[in-house]
């Protein structure tokens, strides 16, 4: 992600934050979303993997755009091709160690577990992702459930030192959320 971000800066002739605000945050009304700097000296480098700081409403707008294949409030923000590329299998023939997130969270083995910046937790028989997520280690869990056209984001503060002593991991507990939401939606139908 860092290399792609730098390539974006060079191609645009602007900082990552400027490009992000112009192309993504602005059109999605993500007024409170920015990237954490890795340093404060000239040559600033934003932390693209895990460095976004956001709010629940801002991130919900982003997930809405993903769910709607690049469209937010009737306007195209990303192309359908870009969405398909993000959601495609980016692991291919790379070695996948036993116990990776998707296997541990879903019991699903395979190599098609990672898209561009997110996990492909479930896929259909054609290999298309039906459940996507991007969990954080300390309590953030956004997801897009393409099968049921539901998306969500839960953000909690977890005291990782205390939780770790008891063996709790929000990273591995959070994947229960979309399944619970599916069950609730199915019950209401």
Say how many strands there are.
8
Q: Which structural class fits the helix and strand makeup?
A: alpha+beta
Largest sheet geometry: 4 strands, antiparallel
Low-pLDDT sequence parts: none
Major sheet: order of its strands? 5-6-7-8
Question: Which percent bin holds the helix content?
Answer: 25-40%
Overview of this protein structure:
With 189 residues, the protein is an alpha+beta fold. It has a domain at 89-189. Helix content is 37%, strand content 16%. It contains eight helices and eight strands. Strands 5-6-7-8 form a four-stranded antiparallel beta sheet, with helices on both faces. Strands 1-2 form a two-stranded antiparallel ribbon. The termini are far apart. The mean pLDDT is 87.
Q: Key terms for this structure?
A:
189 residues; two-stranded antiparallel ribbon; 8 helices; 8 strands; 37% helix
SSE layout and pairings?
Elements: H1 2-12, H2 16-25, E1 34-35, E2 52-53, H3 56-67, E3 71-72, E4 75-76, H4 80-87, H5 101-106, E5 119-123, E6 129-133, E7 140-145, E8 150-155, H6 160-165, H7 170-173, H8 176-188
